[in-house]
Amino acid sequence: MRVEVDLDAAIANWRTFAALSSAEAAAVVKADGYGLGAAPLARAFRAAGATTFFVATPAEGAALRAALDAEATICVLGGYRAEDLAMVRDARLRPVLNGLDQAQAWIAAGRPGDGCVVHVDTGMNRLGAPLADIGALAALDLRPALVMSHLACGGDPGAALNGVQRRRFLEAALAFPGARRSLSASGGAFLGPDYAFDLVRPGVGLYGGAPLDAGGGPPLRAVARVTAPVLQIRTIEAGATVGYGATFTAPHPMQVATLGAGYADGLLRSLSGRGYAVLAGARRPMLGRVSMDLITVDATGLAVAPGDEADLIGPGLGVDEVAAAAGTLAYEVLTSLRGAARTYKGGAA
Ligand SMILES: *Cc1c(COP(=O)(O)O)cnc(C)c1O
User: Fold this and answer.
1) Would you state the pLDDT for residue 45?
2) Sign of the torsion formed by the C-alpha atoms of 90, 115, 49 and 332
3) 224-345 maps to which CATH number?
4) How sure is the predictor about 348, in pLDDT bands with cuts at 50, 70 and 90?
């Protein structure tokens, strides 16, 4: 199995976010660029004009610094812990301080890195400082470059919680008058100018995943194409079964194509009996279970031969469709591909 990453498509998606409002568009490249390779993608966004990047951990930040220039801003969403000191300092990372304890630890360590971000929790109840601690945080000498929060339902324009979080964010941000403000990820960026503030933080939309739960919004381009070679073709009789557990029984004589892709490559096993492949231009169902390195696909009536390539994600089989078949989200489909072999095309060198 092979993942082909279209850097030009990713750049076009970043430009779509940048053009939505007057806010700066950052690029979220955590989890190795949503499974598609943080370094080449970040370099592509950087060349297109991105200056601010978000990762989850200091280790991701240090790796990203090595891939980018010294001027890029690299924010670490996971927070600041004393053990992060050397990495934050040496790679000039900007920790996102998620509470009083982290803020105090960061000051005690001598404000290492490239300034800080203050994250206030306005209703997600995951990361971020509780609103009750804002006064105490503001009393510290933090001078944050950015104050941010995160929407729980940014992908749902009808969610009442969006407006509640926005009002709480506006009030909390008053405590940090010099700081720029950021509230929205991919979904929130489509909620309109009231949600843009100074900086938006798109992730999944950059990689071609739908930002809104119900779809719609400005079109984004597919970034990942996943292909697998046909390893073997066989003809089976009516009544024969396919794969582990014999979960598929042929209702009539069939031609079955065995492809070189499986859950060890990051193809979700929950696609068993539910997923599709595009083979010789035709969309065909997977038959039986996904194995470690193999899947079996209905190739009846198709002119296919060993060595042909099939698409598992690609034109005519979008990442959100694959996610729906697997019972999950584009986020998980993409990040599951982290271990697969990758190639890149496009991108201003
Ligand atoms: C992951 C993340 C993002 C990006 O979210 P998408 O939905 O992928 O756009 C932005 N902000 C925070 C705090 C995040 O954790």
Assistant:
1) 98
2) positive
3) 2.40.37.10
4) low
pLDDT digits (tens, 9 = 90+) for 312-330: 999 889 999 999 999 999 9
Hey, CA dihedral for 158, 125, 36, 57, is it positive or negative?
Answer: positive
Q: 45-79 b/e with 16+ CB inside 10 Å = b?
A: bbebebebbbbbbbebbbbbbebbeeebbbbbbbb
92 in contact with ligand 1, CB cutoff 6 A: no
Query: What are the domain boundaries of the chain?
Result: 7-207, 224-345
Residue 349 pLDDT more than 70?
A: no
For a mutational test of ligand 1's pocket, the pick from 117, 150, 320, i.e. the residue with the most ligand atoms closer than 8 A to its C-beta, is: 150
What is the CA(123)–ligand 1 centre distance, in A? 15
Rounded to the nearest whole angstrom, what is the distance from the C-alpha of residue 129 to the centroid of ligand 1? Answer: 17
Which CATH class, in words, describes the domain spanning 7-207?
alpha beta
pTM above 0.90, yes or no: yes
Residue 42 in contact with ligand 1 by CB distance below 6 A: no
25 CB less than 6 Å from ligand 1? no
